[in-house]
From TrEMBL:
Keywords: Aminoacyl-tRNA synthetase, ATP-binding, Cytoplasm, Ligase, Nucleotide-binding, Protein biosynthesis, RNA-binding. PROSITE patterns: AA_TRNA_LIGASE_I, S4. Its main location: cytoplasm. PANTHER family: TYROSINE--TRNA LIGASE, TYROSYL-TRNA SYNTHETASE. Belongs to the class-I aminoacyl-tRNA synthetase family. TyrS type 2 subfamily. It is an enzyme of class 6 (ligase). The keyword RNA-binding applies. Its EC number is 6.1.1.1. It catalyses: tRNA(Tyr) + L-tyrosine + ATP = L-tyrosyl-tRNA(Tyr) + AMP + diphosphate + H(+). This is Tyrosine--tRNA ligase. A motif ('KMSKS' region) lies at residues 252-256. GO terms for biological process: tyrosyl-tRNA aminoacylation.
């Protein structure tokens, strides 16, 4: 949506500012809003909304919609949830919208092919875990939970056609992924045009003042502004958050890329993964994931630049995140476990595996114990010096283990207590 159209829908900021003054509390709320964001559109309107809310005591309605397309949430998903929690703590009404209807369409954002829709059973199962996991970040007692099937199912065919009449094909084709697919001759199904319309209609139904999303959602969020104007509502503001890089520091955090940290992973795994991020990437994680103030983070960064060991800061981050999703005791235990492992020690709790076929080749054992994806990968790990049996580094790829019980380690984090029988 062109910037001129955003401006054209703006409220009269000067008159509103006279009526609702921008106080220190409003400026503080604006600072909280801005932290770590990619874009806040239009910021002047958001300032006006904050000032009005402060003056009248009426909380703003802040919407985040997630389609339950997978059963689990990773730390990358919590970037927008963290922002929701920050705004929730300012006293505003946050709305966690589960897109049980829009999931049946399939979000085309960032896609070069049509996204397959999910079955109702998949959506319901995923929605349950999404909500449970989102409640680890949001305050459930102050969160309004909605499902967009409430109003989308009620639209019916007539309502859907009337909604579609409020947005043009030309405007829809301004969307980058649609434009690229059209130029490349890649099919675009008509139902994909309905997705941004339905997401925008959610904002109408909820009378949202602000909608959050990732940078890939900007077009859809702006459609919400346009539709609210069409329906005679004050347009919502739009806040986009960056997409968090994964453990590799390059690609977006993703389960499919294997560079993710799941928020329901064991505390020891979560802690160790956080300590594996680079010293440079650590500060981006602090900004987007930590609840420390920006002043506290700046002070910590200055200490590191002044000679403090960066690992100290990384441990603080890992303990904060692990405490959030587990407990302070679990975070302390995870730190102790990590330190034990770094000294060559063995964790207190490791998987127990029973195998038959002794004597068994080391490559086959690693595969069968789920310590390597294949026997050949296990042998490559041995070449790299990354395999230990009972704390002894293995270099013989032809090693065969007799019947017995062994503690097998791959790298720093993978362990198994293997009981091998004939």
């Amino acid at each position: 949506m062109p910037a001129s159209e955003i401006s054209a829908t703006a409220v009269n900021d000067t008159a509103a500012a006279d009526k609702f003054p921008v106080t220190d509390r409003v400026r503080q709320a604006l600072d909280v809003t801005r932290r770590g964001v990619d874009e806040l559109l239009p910021e002047s309107e958001w300032t006006t909304k904050l000032a009005r809310s402060e003056a009248t005591g009426v909380p703003l309605r802040i919407k985040l919609g997630l389609d339950p397309t997978a059963p689990d949430i990773h730390l990358g998903h919590t970037v927008v949830l963290n922002k929701m929690r920050q705004l929730q703590d300012l006293g505003h009404q946050v709305i966690f919208l589960i897109g049980d209807f829009t999931s049946t369409i399939g979000d085309p954002s960032g896609r070069n092919t049509t996204r397959p829709p999910l079955s109702r059973e998949q959506i319901e199962a995923n929605a349950t875990t999404y909500l449970n996991q989102a409640n680890l970040v949001l305050d459930p007692g102050r969160t309004e939970v909605r499902y967009n099937s409430e109003w989308c199912d009620a639209l019916g065919a007539r309502g859907m056609i009337q909604l579609a009449s409020r947005y043009t094909v030309a405007r829809m084709m301004e969307r980058d992924d649609f434009t690229k697919r059209f130029k490349a001759g890649t099919p675009i199904s008509v139902h994909e045009f309905l997705y941004p319309l339905m997401q925008g209609y959610d904002s109408v139904a909820l009378k949202a003042d602000l909608e959050l999303g990732g940078t890939d959602q900007k077009f859809n969020l702006l459609v919400g502004r346009a539709l609210q104007s069409e329906y005679g509502q004050e347009p919502q503001c739009v806040l986009t958050m960056p997409l968090l890089e994964g453990l590799d520091g390059v690609e977006k955090m993703s389960k499919s890329k294997g560079n993710y940290i799941g928020i329901t992973e064991p505390a020891n795994t979560m802690f160790a993964k956080l300590l594996s991020i680079s010293d440079v990437m650590m500060w981006r994680y602090f900004t987007l994931l930590s609840f420390l103030s920006e002043a506290e983070i700046a002070k910590l960064k200055a200490e590191v630049e002044g000679g403090r060991n960066p690992k100290d800061a990384k441990v603080l981050l890992a303990k904060e995140i692990t405490t959030r999703f587990h407990s302070a005791a679990a975070a302390d235990a995870a730190e102790a476990d990590f330190n034990n492992r770094s000294k060559g020690g063995i964790p207190d709790e490791i998987p127990e595996v029973s195998l038959t076929g002794a004597p068994l080749g080391i490559g086959a054992l690693l595969r069968s114990a789920n310590l390597a994806a294949s026997s050949s990968e296990g042998l490559r790990l041995i070449d790299g010096g990354g395999v230990r049996v009972d704390s002894v580094v293995i270099s013989d790829k032809g090693l065969k283990l007799e019947a017995g019980t062994y503690v097998v380690q791959v790298g720093r984090r993978k362990f198994a207590r293997v009981t091998l029988t004939a």
